[in-house]
Amino acid sequence: MSATPGRAEPTVYGSDANVPLRDVVSAFAAVPGDGRLCGPGVRSVDSDPVGHFQGMGVYRDRWVILTHSTALYSAGWFAVWDMRTGKATSYPISTPGHMRHPGGLQVIGDYLVAGIEPTAQLSLPALVRIYDLRDIERAGPRLVPQPQIEVAGRSAAAVGITKVGGRHMLAVYGSDPCGEIYFYWSNGRPLGDPELTFRTGDPVLHFRADVHGHRTGYDNLALLTSAAGELFLLGLRGDKAGSLAVKDTADLWRIDPSGGKAELAVTSGHRTSG
Q: What is the pLDDT of residue 1?
């Protein structure tokens, strides 16, 4: 069909929501406590001795996407592992201002949302960026030019996002200034739309994670919704358990946007092998 003269063709956006879970707490409880090694034949992808992997997401049950920060180059990168072919590829992350620390991320529909900071040591000023994954097999995650979501005066070490009632809810955790998680509603535009905005000046709620008297932060976040419209936050953290050991823990929080409350639902430890 030919375009009508003088009229712009409508932009086609990808899916911008994940499938709600019937019972979020039960799904969380069903996750095994012991991990297993996947893809043992895949070597490390373009690492450097002073950088680190932090964020991880899975797209279409096929591509595993990790963020890697660096102190040696002008930007970090995405490492993408294709579970079907076993191929692993790295893609430089397009970031403004030569930021080098892409942090925690969440995959939602055909998009990836990640927090970006200047370096692992310098966390301000920070941005939240959106990447289109529909051409991942050929070109990797592709930066959506707009919006650049600014969280003025707060860092963005990890982010989570979900769609609730036609709007997106964004959660941003930063170690600065107070190690709190902030929640923001969008204006209802699709992900990938340059007119999408988030009300970062008017957070729905914010809180510092306190798990049984232990105040903590998260390397990765994910927002989850139930079929009944309930909102949950999953926080992943690694706490030092000695000079070299790390204790991996997952915390599930029940979030009440209308009441401005966050309540710890479940916490569980996990062990990795390899």
A: 41
Cα 29 to Cα 21, 108, 161, 226, 247: the distances in Å are 13, 22, 21, 15, 18
- Residues 36 and 61: their CA atoms lie apart, in Å, by 17
Predicted TM-score (pTM) of this structure:
0.89
Query: Which residue has tokens 């790295």?
Result: 90
Range of lowest pLDDT (49-53, 96-100, 172-176, 218-222): 96-100
For residue 106 the two structure tokens come to 């969440």
Roughly how many angstroms between the first and final C-alpha of the chain, as a whole number? 54
43 or 267, higher pLDDT:
267
- Residue predicted with more confidence, 155 or 124: 155
Nearest-5° angle of CA 209, CA 69, CA 141? 95
Tokens of 220: 């990765």
Q: Can you give 118-148 as a three-state secondary structure string?
A: CCCCCCCCCEEEEEECCCHHHHCCEECCCCC
Per-residue DSSP letter, 12: P
CA triple 117-122-69, angle to 5 deg: 50
Q: Do the beta carbons of residue 103 and residue 158 sit within 8 Å?
A: yes
Distances (CA, A) of 137 to 57, 69, 90: 15, 22, 12
Query: Reduced to 3 states, what is the DSSP secondary structure of residue 252?
Result: strand
What is the model's pLDDT at position 158? 94
